[in-house]
Amino acid sequence: MSWLPDDFVHPVHVPVPDTAVHLRPIREADTAIDYPAVMGSRERLWEIFGPAWGWPKETMTYEEDRIDLLRHEKEVAAHQSFNYALLDEEETAILGCVYIDPPERIGSDAEISWWVVDDLVGGEVERALDALVPQWIDADWPFRQPRYVGRDITWQDWLALPRAS
What we know:
single chain; alpha+beta; Aminopeptidase; 6-stranded mixed beta sheet; 5 helices; 6 strands; 19% strand
C-alpha cells in the first residue's frame, strides 16, 4: 500500500501568503540556484539536518547537489517523497525548501520539515512559511497524522523514536 492515495495530485505552485515567494517541486535544473542557497546556509542546515540526514556535508560539490536534486525530482514524479523549493517570483533564487516524506518513525503518516536561507531567518518570509506549511498540509494533502519534525517534535526526540516498519 502506498503512503498516498493512487488518485492524489500533488500541488505544483503554492503561493506563500503576504509575500512575493512561492513553493514548487524542486528540479535538477534548479541546481544553479539551489547550491548557493544550501552552501550559503550550510552550517545552520547541518545543525538542523546533519544528525538525521548527514546533510549538507561541508564538502558537498555542485555535482553532488545536482544528483541529489535529480533524485528529488524523480521521487516527486513517483510520489515517493516531495521536496518543494521556496522561490522568488522570477525563480532566480531558492530561499529554502519544504520536505514532505513518508514516515521513517512510528506515530505519523507523513514527516514534514522545512528551512529558509540564513538571510531570512526570523523575518517575514520565514514567519509566513511557518504559518503556511501546516495549513497547506491540512488543506491539500491526505494526511491524518502529519508530524512536523523540528517543530512539534525535536530532531533528537524524533531520532529516538522506533523506526516505522
